[in-house]
């Protein structure tokens, strides 16, 4: 894995970074990063859902004063593309999250730093721009969780992104078959000072799932406890159901992320895009709603925004661009994505994001009146 | 065919046993066991139907006291996975049904022993756990049928599973093309003492189907006769229609198995999963309903249970795991399946099977409101 | 092309004759016989339509007195499988229509002899059984048409099958690319005595289609003229629309054949099966309706019959079986087809054809109530 | 690239020209001409949409006086096939647009000359027949636009085709990956005398899309200005939405072209055919409506006409036939297309284009009443 200080000429579109990352990373590492849970059914569904929607251009509209700015949870963002929280980025590049943060700063991008980052959240914050959020995993002990929260507050993170869908995961068959195992020296820098989980012996007849992995998984009570212990707004990530969306909204979270964790938790859940419209309908038009899952191009971003997302996160594109060309790659990928989003806005005659809506999309399989 | 006393490391998921069984069994035998009737259209449809459904996780629910227990026809089962009746298991492994029975006992699994087992039902019973049912094929002579029933009662089988869809079958083209023929020394141990069918010369112009194979096929009258001659509950297997389901329910059978015989009888019948919801709707919520057809993973089991089945049967997974690693393989496969089912329950926030329902599933092809 | 006096052991199902005919016939001849118009879109659609329907078995019904007999336009037929009119059968086998006729006689099958047969209709009639119809193409001169009709009446043909969809055809790209051309010595025996079409010079600016090929194509007036000049019942073949079906019914034809000419006329017309139910609905329950298009198995026949056909025709199966094993092959193919039809009837609990209906079928893509 | 003075015998249908052009053109040039924007999703959708519709023949109708003539915007055309405006045709053949124009003249075809033609519009006009239109791109300066308009009027072009969907385009990944770049010596002959666009430095923070490419893109105001400065009827090309269609109709354009620019602008817009019926419904039955996008055969043309187009344009077929056999190739392609259209009309019993309508088509995926 030799990081490249330049953009390879083979990169014609953002998705090309995946192919190049394949060539550059060790096989098992690539399979782990690119693969989804199980047989990749959900990861593939994420991609396919975008192909099932087409964009309907509008003609002759003046977009010469167009822009992609938006206000999101108190941030004035230049564009609606966020860097999703991706764990252990040194797997892809030695500079890991530091390079990602530099790219975010260079491109006015909001960064979401993972609890499981390879570098400490304070160090990541020093390289990031002003727009940065911290992704929080509940820790086995509440004092550790609280310490993480306080550190994120102190380091200037503007929101806590609670990943709620990863209490249990199915392994990636691609990664297993490629022989991937997490390197022994890969440790979550943020958790270095905390005690590990208390030993939890399973009684005879107990389930490794219910009484094992799910022992101590966060519940609604934990969410309420956390809300009362931080001044940061909470963003709930991993929502795929309208009822959960409404319940979270009712408990005071500030925003939701429609996400299936990039297809990395339970294989066989729906494409994020497939459930987005129903969730937007459920939370109403004004509530901050983000999207994550399968975005590989600016037109993918356009479609998610048109279906009701206020902003979108990119995960695999981020890690693949990082693997190929470090901070420069991530910045280049973000610029390509943003310009392609702008092209879609221009083609549909939308000078601002506020004009995007489902009327700009068309489903090919819908019957037409013949 | 050398039985292996260990779990091969290549087994990453239950379905991997099929691939390994392919390598381990003689080609024609593998084709016979894995193939379906005709061109495998129904066998393939069984698999495809599961892919057409996705699972909708629910967040933040406490499942730490979760379990998979259920009460089914008087049995207190640890989990809803049953071993389907598979004939002539020595084709796959010398220990055949005895090893399958040992695996059932070791994993608290309800075993269904076939009329066409390679070992006598009494011997199988000695190795099985307390939960065991006997699958009954009507014999050409009623006294033989009755003797089988009495033997099953005496050997402690708790129910009679009547396979109703196998009076006539289309051959498997895969098996024919591979040159499979049933070995001459493979005899149904249970039938050793009974006279064969009376010679039945077809008159000129008679049909080998109607007046041949279907001569003496069981009818409603036979079902009533049987019900009046046993104290065991009857489970009707092979149901694909709501009207048949209601008729069977009306005649007093204790449970139904929605099944297409793993695609091994008539090629071109629907996937079992495709008809399951209508049959559950027809028999009402409380009636014991089992499912069989295409299950290769715990998430498949989850989907069938969510669509209304109380329990599911596994056939090909059983025979493939048996071929690869004998009793140990079958037990390992059942454990993988059960844990994956638990993972799906945990991800959907269901501590018990009673919480499963169709609201946890989503059909990708359903239109969404854009 | 060496005719084989035996059934090759590789024939496991009727459709296997196609594969073997491929090996046995000269490449261009095979492509011509197997190919459809244009790119084979319609020929492929014919096949795909059957796969889109599944069969719903019914349990425990007594079919031990079952049969496949039917009464069709005055014939008491043993089964509902007819041999479609296929032209120039010596392309496939030196004995051509004579062997086909022998097979028909041996299997109680109704034969439809083509106007373009390689042998004279009188000679074909001598080898056929009692059930035989004559397929009539309108000739350029009415006296020739009338002479054909009188000869068919004299030779004991029981109906005239008017092929209405072949006035113009698109060539088969497969056949063209394989270099097929009709052999010079291949002449329609029935037309030997008639004058050819009058030379018909196209004026400048005229269309080779409208003023060329369609000059003299049959119209409603020709149909009425013919009806008034024969005592034979007329069967209109090539119907794909409900309105045409009703018009033909109104003009007194005795029966219809839903057919797209095996996909050999206009590439891109619907599968015959796709339009069958609407046509049955249009003509009402009692009107004789035949089906042709894509049948390769007894379950295909079952599906067409369940959707409203009284009987079905087989074309390519006929010619492929003829190519492989002459009269014996055609008879064997018919027997396989009939027995598979009987298996489907037995599995659905139908002792007679009268019990077949759409309730025995299921469309997998139909939504189910989850 | 050696132009061929004959029709290659491998050409069995119009679409065969693509395959032969592939062999004849330099790889990057072929990819540029054949490719669409991005990943060719829209280009592929254009083709697939035709396969989703089938043609329903009608029987026994007299078409012996049939023809394909139509009156379109004052032209009496022999047939409804137009040559779409394709830029820089010397990329495909040294004689470029001159040969295309000769083919148009020889086949009574209406030619649409591109603003970006390799030869001057006056020279193209001299080789074309009486039916010729000029495709207009708005120029950076209005005086240049106006000069083009006056030249087109003077050269006898009968309409101005305004391409409205090309203000911004996504590059073709196929072309980029093949290394295509526009040859330096390839200049739009029509624009030789005009000044280039004024240098337009982007301010810091400005978008290369909104403030760059879309700076000066035509708007509704430009359309109104143009309408008031020419006596030629305006044809708006690139319409994919009903609302745009109605707005354009309301502003006085004389005709519309439903088109997605052959999938060459924004990848991921719908197939032209998918939106055609809604647009016909929106503009009403009498309004001139043309179609462009994916036509490769006369049956494709038939389908577009049946769904409401008055005439259709062919682009890639034109350029591929030109590459293979110059003027002769284009003329031959047009003749094949026209005759295949006539075959479809004959098969559906339509002597004139006025009889075409959606009732002649059928969607296979529509449920049928079983």
Keywords:
38% helix; two-stranded antiparallel sheet; 13 helices; 8-stranded parallel β-barrel; homotetramer; 12 strands; TIM Barrel; alpha/beta; 370 residues
Brief overview:
With 370 residues, chain A is an alpha/beta fold. In chain A, 38% of the residues lie in helices and 12% in strands. Chain A has a single domain, classed as Alpha-Beta Barrel (TIM Barrel).
What features would you describe in this structure?
- The structure is a homotetramer.
- The first copy, chain A, has about 375 residues and is an alpha/beta fold.
- Chain A has one domain (about 15-55, about 75-180, about 215-350): Aldolase class I (TIM Barrel, Alpha-Beta Barrel), CATH 3.20.20.70.
- Helices cover about 40% and strands about 10% of the residues of chain A.
- The first copy, chain A, has 13 helices and twelve strands.
- Chain A has helices spanning about 15-25, 25-35, 40-50, 95-105, 120-125, 140-155, 175, 210-215, 220-225, 240-250, 270-285, 300-305, 315-345, and strands at about 55, 70, 75, 80-85, 110-115, 130-135, 160-165, 235-240, 255-260, 290, 310-315, 360.
- In chain A, the strands form three sheets. The first copy, chain A, has an eight-stranded parallel β-barrel with strand order 4-5-6-7-8-9-10-11, surrounded by seven helices. In chain A, strands 1-12 form a two-stranded antiparallel ribbon. A two-stranded antiparallel sheet of chain A has the order 2-3.
- In chain A, helix 4 (about 95-105) runs parallel beside helix 5 (about 120-125) and helix 12 (about 300-305) packs across helix 13 (about 315-345).
- The relative contact order of chain A is 0.21.
- The model of chain A has no long low-confidence stretch (mean pLDDT about 95).
- Chains A and D meet through strand 1 and helix 13 of A and helix 3, helix 7, helix 8, helix 9 and strand 8 of D.
